[in-house]
Amino acid sequence: MKNKIAYIICLVLFSINASFAQLNPLTAQYYTNTYLANPAFAGYNQGLNINASYRTQWTRIPGSPVVQNLTADFGTEKVGVGLNINFDKAGLQRQSRVVGTYAYHLKLNNSDKALHFGLSVGFMQQRLSQQDLVGNINDPLAMNYNQ
Known about the structure:
Layout: H1 2-14, E1 47-56, E2 66-75, E3 79-90, E4 93-107, E5 114-128, H2 140-145
Antiparallel strand pairs: 1-2, 2-3, 3-4, 4-5
């Protein structure tokens, strides 16, 4: 049985085409929603926490950046789980992310001090908005970006 589980884990890990780290679109709202900055904060406050944020910059400039976040996390005394859904738009570029998080909170010596560990796994899609493209819409570089 252990060999089957190890085989399945290896199969999943080696079937991944690419892995990237630290691709969080950190915005100014991280001080009110610490889970945006660090997955170890999932479930830090016990119970269910739901946060939503919307940020737009340079509103008078066409194609200005827009970031939307929806996070939900639930924590017990030692374990936290979370979900982060993010949409980011800047010019022609669009990015969508869905991330699930597991966090473990380890208290030290019955005090207020603790170690927090977190791991996030998710999917990200980056694409170019071809309907907003100005100029030659058959440009091979622009057409191949979304593949």
